[in-house]
Design a protein that fits this description.
By secondary structure, this protein is an alpha/beta fold. It folds into 2 domains: 220 residues, Rossmann fold, CATH 3.40.50; 76 residues, UDP-galactose 4-epimerase, domain 1. 40% of the residues lie in helices and 18% in strands. The protein contains 10 helices and 14 strands. The strands form 4 sheets. A 7-stranded parallel sheet has the order 3-2-1-4-5-6-12, sandwiched between helices. A 3-stranded mixed sheet has the order 9-8-14. A hairpin with a 5-residue loop joins strand 8 and strand 9. Helix 1 packs across helix 7, helix 6 packs across helix 8 and helix 6 crosses helix 10. The radius of gyration is 19 Å and the shape is globular.
Length: 331
């Protein structure tokens, strides 16, 4: 896929202050891309690392605000990352989750529809959770969406809405579905990598989650994890496709096709962090899929995407970043 010339290109990125948005900015802003963001009031004061972005205070539930941003800045690309992304919070606050993930996505798509011809392309960030519980084989894009839990259902709705705006209104969109992303700038300790590193930093034993199958036997969750630099590469390749008007309306899985039990993931993090204190087992009774793995073969064939980081390589880089952040906090 041909590299995109980002000079004089304006990108409206929802969720810019989040984990993936921050990494996207740090990769594309030095290449000349101008970022515009819509962020909630509590996130409007961005760190120095995002100072080059144009930040508007507001929420994606406000469609008029989105329209004004698109019109004012003559946006070339929209990358919709914003979401209520914590599974536990989604289960406890389903209305808030649907307001952000479903209504927010509808608003972004509708605001783009009302500005025909201006936007060159849109990327919607979806998730492997829309497929539902895997049956021991990697998800492929042609599978039916069978979400089970609140967060998963909200993202499946948003995923369908986004693709519907291509079919019905020719909004030039590509949907990317991510597996579990980890790496620098991720501070959401509901996710296994930052949670484990936080527990180690605090002198606590890392927690390994398990569930019980229908026969009451302990089973470990299995996850496909992808390093953030590989996700950014996948997003850049997707922008390149949009630049050429290719693969509009398509869905691409961005995963690794590998699957690890959560105890193996915690073990690897502990090893790279120099921790030898063992772990604690904790049962999870609902809200989490048992098995997740994603095939990236379609993205490889059409976009040239292929992850370059093994789990060991990615964990090593992530641990180094987190430990560096910890040292900065001490000074």
């Amino acid at each position: 896929m041909k590299a995109t010339d980002y000079e004089k290109k304006t990108i409206f990125c929802t969720g810019l202050t989040g984990f993936i948005g921050t990494n996207l900015y740090l990769n594309l802003a030095p290449k000349g891309a101008q970022f515009v963001a819509l962020v909630p009031k509590e996130e409007a004061e961005t760190g120095d690392y995002l100072k080059g972005a144009i930040v508007h205070e507001g929420k994606i539930e406000d469609i008029e605000k989105i329209e004004r941003i698109l019109e004012k800045h003559r946006v070339d690309y929209v990358i919709h990352l914003a979401a209520s992304a914590t599974v536990g919070a989604a289960a406890n606050n389903p209305l808030d989750t649907f307001e952000t993930n479903v209504r927010g996505t509808w608003n972004v798509m509708e605001a783009i529809r009302r500005n025909p011809g201006q936007i060159k392309g849109v990327i919607f960030a979806s998730t492997d959770k829309v497929y539902g519980n895997g049956m021991g084989t990697a998800y492929v894009e042609t599978e039916a969406l069978e979400p089970e839990y609140t967060y998963d259902i909200s993202k499946a709705c948003a995923d369908t809405i986004a693709r519907g705006f291509w079919r019905n209104y020719n909004v030039p969109i590509i949907v990317t579905r991510f597996c579990n992303v980890y790496g620098a700038w991720d501070r959401n300790d509901s996710r296994i990598v930052p949670r484990t590193l936080k527990q180690i930093r605090e002198g606590k034993q890392p927690v390994v989650h398990y569930f019980r199958d229908m026969d009451g036997r302990k089973q470990l969750f299995q996850r496909d994890l992808i390093y953030i630099e590989d996700i950014i590469d996948g997003l850049e390749r997707t922008i390149g496709a949009l630049e050429m008007g290719m693969y509009l309306g398509e869905v691409f899985n961005l995963g690794t096709g590998q699957c690890y039990t959560v105890d193996r993931i915690v073990e690897m993090i502990s090893l790279k962090a120099g921790y030898e204190g063992g772990c604690t087992m904790k049962e999870i009774t609902g809200g989490e899929l048992h098995f997740q793995s994603m095939s990236f073969q379609k993205a490889k064939r059409l976009l040239g995407f292929e992850p370059t980081h093994s789990l060991e390589m990615g964990i090593e880089k992530t641990v180094a970043w987190f430990q560096g952040q910890g040292e900065q906090q001490k000074t």
